[in-house]
Amino acid sequence: MKANLGRRYRLSASHRLHSERLSEEENRAVYGKCANPHGHGHNYTVEVLVGGEIDKGTGMVIDLVELDACVQREVLQPFDHENLNTLTAFANRVPTTENLCIEIEQRLRRALRPELSLTVRVEETSNNFFEYRG
Amino acid sequence: MKANLGRRYRLSASHRLHSERLSEEENRAVYGKCANPHGHGHNYTVEVLVGGEIDKGTGMVIDLVELDACVQREVLQPFDHENLNTLTAFANRVPTTENLCIEIEQRLRRALRPELSLTVRVEETSNNFFEYRG
Amino acid sequence: MKANLGRRYRLSASHRLHSERLSEEENRAVYGKCANPHGHGHNYTVEVLVGGEIDKGTGMVIDLVELDACVQREVLQPFDHENLNTLTAFANRVPTTENLCIEIEQRLRRALRPELSLTVRVEETSNNFFEYRG
Amino acid sequence: MKANLGRRYRLSASHRLHSERLSEEENRAVYGKCANPHGHGHNYTVEVLVGGEIDKGTGMVIDLVELDACVQREVLQPFDHENLNTLTAFANRVPTTENLCIEIEQRLRRALRPELSLTVRVEETSNNFFEYRG
Amino acid sequence: MKANLGRRYRLSASHRLHSERLSEEENRAVYGKCANPHGHGHNYTVEVLVGGEIDKGTGMVIDLVELDACVQREVLQPFDHENLNTLTAFANRVPTTENLCIEIEQRLRRALRPELSLTVRVEETSNNFFEYRG
Amino acid sequence: MKANLGRRYRLSASHRLHSERLSEEENRAVYGKCANPHGHGHNYTVEVLVGGEIDKGTGMVIDLVELDACVQREVLQPFDHENLNTLTAFANRVPTTENLCIEIEQRLRRALRPELSLTVRVEETSNNFFEYRG
């Protein structure tokens, strides 16, 4: 029997939306206030949805201690309380929340057992969220 | 790479659930207090889920200024602070939240580029919501 | 030892903000879209804060069954799924949430034992609330 | 036209995570504090997602009075304010929220008309939830 | 300049409401389903409101690392994932949330510097909370 | 009759906690990850609580259009989508949320009629908030 476990983590970070492929004017048109040169920030909620067989012995889809350690190492340690624009992961990509979502999914995908399904959802504000399934 | 963007909008409206195809007694049985002749109201939360390719240049699924303008014109302007029963859209349909959800999806579907996927979810109260994917 | 118990109740109602003391133009200036003639609606959250001595025997400030019955009779039965403008309580007052809050406080104040303190808070939307302490 | 209705219910219960298939040490390793012998508890939110055709006459996917009665009888009456470990349903299964979710889905599946689709989601805490679709 | 800092902590525990000063019938009348012999449980949210002068050097009311360590030691370690009825703190008092709230306030009051003001608020469910100021 | 109106606004900003009165080591000890040189960010919720007489004519404590314009001009325009450390308001103060809360209160206090009472509450994350009453 397969079920999904969803688990929420929180991280605070700053970013500035600015693309080197666009002119200053285009940046302002596309990103509005998000292009302000000094950056701004968010409390991101990262929701990790893991699907798999329920283990007959434990009654669980995945060991939560293992999942928490994985998210701590792959997501919270590198991104929490950082300026996303200064990280290698976003050296060649604008740190939009779409791209943050994909980056998180790819890091967790490599770390989790392949038989588990994975969807990542990142809430940027209480009105905005993004989802990615690899 | 495809991702989903979810964005929430809020509108307040009143409605009365009453079907001309049903007798007074049947209306009361089906809709309970929602059939009260003077109507009642809700704060609806409209969650629009738009899926599409992430633009390499901007790192975004859809330009938010464009999406907001579209929802403003197609949904908030016609429905916010209105009595749904008095609107043309519900002249021949009971303004249940199921039907409101479909009406909103159809208006946005016509307005958005066809390569974008679309799901609309309307929260009627903190305990009730409806989803429609055309 | 004195403590406060807070308990939340929910009701859905419609209203139209329109004062007979103001001209049509003034009504529109003061209330904006809330003056639309067909009315609109809200899911109100009513938070009742009751303060008093903790009973040594039961360990409780007030019996919840008693409080629920009181709120049911004095608040939910008369106001839930109604159009506030059609009720006697608002025959001579605009049904703003300020006035709804006071009306609820006065009804509960008469019904509760006088040694209990009482504050009523009404959430109109997720961004707006009102508080009244008699 | 098919739509989904989601409806939330709440129940409070206690449980202890402890598997007879595991040694005391393994139980502690797998379940951590959740294996404490005296148990602990949660406010569970049960979200029932029912999909089906919108009835042309009523404009509704399912009669809410009928759905509420069904959930009351099949879920809230047997599980609310109980210790899950003492119930027959969990005599041979650890009462993890994964297993609670499946148990609820199976009870509702038997009770609802077969043409309706059904997904059950149980929130264990504000950071944890589980989903099951039979 | 004085300001308040509010900080939320979460704990899961089980309890049974049953007073030795009351007969079986009275217990059932006062506590309803909460008197079930096997107990039930909640996710409690503990909100600690600490008031004091803002330190000119740090710009803070209280060092958060210090506050977190204090709450961890005085509240989460003894109460999280426990059955409240089995603890010494509730040997002679019914573990209502009113009494839990007072117990938490008293433990923190002894641990915090006396010039800081303190109010404790415990949310038992999304509809119920209790407040105590010593 | 006096009542309180509470209204919530949202802003996103970045900050770095770092005091020039402290050594590098002390800064790290006091602020932890919040002292990271590149800064990080938050979605702040600003709750403005305004108390006053209910106007007999309008049934309102304060005109919401006027309040919104005031908060837009005094708070959202200067602080939203900015890096707080770069603003004049925080040239000589660490931009802790305590200090942001006081700064917002002082700006609104000067702008609102003196007979209105005012309390400002700023939520920094879902677990942390600050309150100031001038």
Structure, described:
Six copies of one chain form a homohexamer. By secondary structure, chain A is an alpha+beta fold. The first copy, chain A, has one domain: 2-Layer Sandwich (Tetrahydropterin Synthase, Chain A). Chain A contains three helices and five strands, in the order E-H-E-H-E-H-E-E. The first copy, chain A, has a five-stranded mixed β-sheet with strand order 3-1-2-4-5. In chain A, strand 4 and strand 5 form a beta hairpin. The longest helix of chain A has 16 residues. The radius of gyration of chain A is 17 Å and the shape is elongated. The first copy, chain A, starts with a strand and ends with a strand.
